[in-house]
Recover the amino acids of this structure.
């Protein structure tokens, strides 16, 4: 379930909750710039909704520099005479959603702008490169990419896809495709390689962002999938992780 940080005034927060609840989007309210940064360092955020007032715009510009992978969205009842405010939001940069007019499409806008869409685009070549061509493989990959912050177990994924664990494991690895467990870890490490390019994050932050049991577990997974230490992931980026994985790291021993 996507997680969106909300740095909003009371009225906008209530409107956002009404708009996003039917879409299953979770909102976490932050009251200060410091709380927003803390949220971005501990949770994989889909986006940040902001009331674009004078007190928030400068901190948001700093946040955009430190966390460029997390889109900022101004949620405000923009009027025709708010041209300067809209321009300032664009400079941050922030996308604009008109509160009271675009509420019904807020979830759709966030889906198009957010972290999931970014991951899908960054890893768009992965299915073809890994040989994930069947409908079941594609459906499993789509869930894995959407939910990289949650360690997915094969049994849970199989239940959601309506098949047995054994059938999913066999069908997913058919045709020389990688093992499912390896692909789950690939999505997590490739996404980590992207978000760790953010100046506001350190490699150790990925332990919390992606639900690893410990720093040691994260390190071992990074080495197994990409062959590099966590501190080197940002340097090779998600495409580098995918390339290294494709060149011989797609099969687990179990």
């Amino acid at each position: 379930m996507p997680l969106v940080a909300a740095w909003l005034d009371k009225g906008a927060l209530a409107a956002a909750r009404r708009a996003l609840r039917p879409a299953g989007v979770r909102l976490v309210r932050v009251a200060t710039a410091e709380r927003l940064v803390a949220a971005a360092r501990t949770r994989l955020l889909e986006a940040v909704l902001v009331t674009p007032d004078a007190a928030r715009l400068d901190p948001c510009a700093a946040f955009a520099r430190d966390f460029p992978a997390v889109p900022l969205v101004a949620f405000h009842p923009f009027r025709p005479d708010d041209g300067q405010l809209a321009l300032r939001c664009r400079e941050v940069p922030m996308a604009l959603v008109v509160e009271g007019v675009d509420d019904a499409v807020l979830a759709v806008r966030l889906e198009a702008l957010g972290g999931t869409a970014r991951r899908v685009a960054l890893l768009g070549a992965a299915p073809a490169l890994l040989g994930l061509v069947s409908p079941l493989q594609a459906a499993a990959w789509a869930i894995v990419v959407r939910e990289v912050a949650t360690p997915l177990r094969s049994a849970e994924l199989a239940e959601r896809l309506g098949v047995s664990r054994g059938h999913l494991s066999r069908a997913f690895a058919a045709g020389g495709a990688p093992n499912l467990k390896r692909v789950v870890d690939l999505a997590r490490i490739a996404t980590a390689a992207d978000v760790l390019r953010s100046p506001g994050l350190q490699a150790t932050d990925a332990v919390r962002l992606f639900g690893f049991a410990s720093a040691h577990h994260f390190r071992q997974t990074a080495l197994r999938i990409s062959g590099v230490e966590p501190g080197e992931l940002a340097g090779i980026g998600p495409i580098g992780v995918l390339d290294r994985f494709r060149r011989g790291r797609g099969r687990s021993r179990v």
About this structure: The chain has a mean pLDDT of 92. Residues 180-195 form the longest helix (16 residues). Residues 47 and 70 are 5 Å apart (CA to CA). The longest strand covers residues 3-7.
